[in-house]
């Protein structure tokens, strides 16, 4: 499926046997790291998936989001709630022992996000490797390239299209919200509660009973560190329940709810809600396209020694 016209032209330079000679155990080592981290903290898979999205949508899938320092992508407030950086760092440290200077942080991140899906019950997806790490990481590139939780369908389609991704990819990849969690501030503008406990829906696309439950989980004045599961029923399992949640008008974000406000995307939501195998098949294809967005290959970029800093 890499020959899809919506894939980056560089993606054709990625290869399924890229590390066959130079680091044949790379996938085993990354998966073991992700498995151990997930056992210790079940929130890790959702964080790894989100980390890949935020990386690939800014400068392409080049691990630029991992670089620390003032003015970097990672320093932008829109990326303040990203996590699981330590998981990537751990995997990279192991790889540097066995295959020093060989495996890019961009490939580690793509593999880790892929494994996060499989380890939570989703499909196993073979993905090609050979991504190089970017040397540019600027906070100024973040806001114009990532999806905000209050976006309309048209706003999301525009950004996805700029990455060579289709409306189908948008609906399928939104299914990442079947795992993971969100801070209250990401959706609290969809409703308000007065001092008597009366609820007013600001976003009428949200189920009122669900909104009422959310006010109990995110009361006024609550700590900004409180999080809510994206999928209220099977939050730790990668399945098609996210699409069933959307049909019940219980999508946590406005950007979730808009997927059922439009016939173009609604048909796909219904299809995936009714057929998990179809969602998994679509996920495999869309994830391949996502993890190939704007990749650097060959002589571009570098292979970082440490993921949080350029060489």
UniProtKB/TrEMBL annotation:
GO molecular function list: heme binding; lactoperoxidase activity; metal ion binding
UniProt-listed Gene3D superfamilies: 1.10.520.10, Peroxidase, domain 2
GO biological process: hydrogen peroxide catabolic process; response to oxidative stress
Plant heme peroxidase family profile domain residues: 13-311
Binding site for heme b: 177
Function per UniProt: Removal of H(2)O(2), oxidation of toxic reductants, biosynthesis and degradation of lignin, suberization, auxin catabolism, response to environmental stresses such as wounding, pathogen attack and oxidative stress. These functions might be dependent on each isozyme/isoform in each plant tissue.
Family (UniProt): Belongs to the peroxidase family. Classical plant (class III) peroxidase subfamily.
Full protein name: Peroxidase
Organism of origin: Actinidia chinensis var. chinensis (Chinese soft-hair kiwi)
Classification of source organism: Eukaryota, Viridiplantae, Streptophyta, Embryophyta, Tracheophyta
């Amino acid at each position: 499926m890499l020959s899809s016209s919506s894939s980056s032209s560089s993606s054709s330079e990625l290869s399924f046997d890229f590390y066959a000679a130079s680091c044949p155990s790379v996938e085993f080592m990354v998966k073991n790291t992700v498995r151990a981290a997930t056992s210790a903290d079940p929130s890790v898979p959702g964080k790894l998936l989100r980390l890949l999205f935020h990386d690939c949508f800014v400068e392409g899938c080049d691990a630029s989001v991992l670089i620390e320092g003032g003015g970097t992508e990672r320093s932008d407030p829109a990326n303040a709630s990203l996590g699981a950086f330590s998981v990537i760092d751990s995997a990279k440290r192991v790889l540097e022992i066995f295959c020093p200077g060989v495996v890019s942080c961009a490939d580690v991140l793509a593999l880790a996000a892929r494994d996060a899906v499989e380890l939570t019950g989703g499909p196993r997806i073979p993905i090609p490797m050979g991504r190089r790490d970017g040397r540019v990481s600027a906070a100024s590139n973040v806001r114009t390239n990532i999806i905000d939780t209050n976006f309309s369908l048209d706003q999301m389609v525009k950004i996805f299209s700029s990455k060579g991704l289709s409306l189908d990819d948008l609906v399928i990849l939104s299914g990442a919200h079947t795992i993971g969690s969100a801070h209250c501030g990401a959706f609290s503008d969809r409703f308000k509660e007065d001092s008597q406990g009366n609820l007013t829906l600001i976003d009428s696309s949200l189920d009122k009973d669900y909104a009422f439950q959310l006010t109990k989980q995110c009361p006024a004045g609550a700590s900004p560190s409180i999080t809510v599961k994206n999928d209220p029923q099977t939050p730790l399992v990668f399945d098609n329940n996210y699409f069933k949640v959307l049909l019940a008008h219980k999508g946590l974000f406005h950007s979730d709810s808009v997927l059922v406000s439009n016939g173009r995307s609604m048909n796909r939501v219904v299809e995936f809600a009714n057929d998990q195998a179809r969602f998994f098949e679509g996920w495999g294809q869309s994830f391949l396209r996502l993890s190939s967005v704007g990749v650097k290959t060959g002589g571009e970029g570098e292979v970082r020694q440490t993921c949080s800093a350029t060489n």
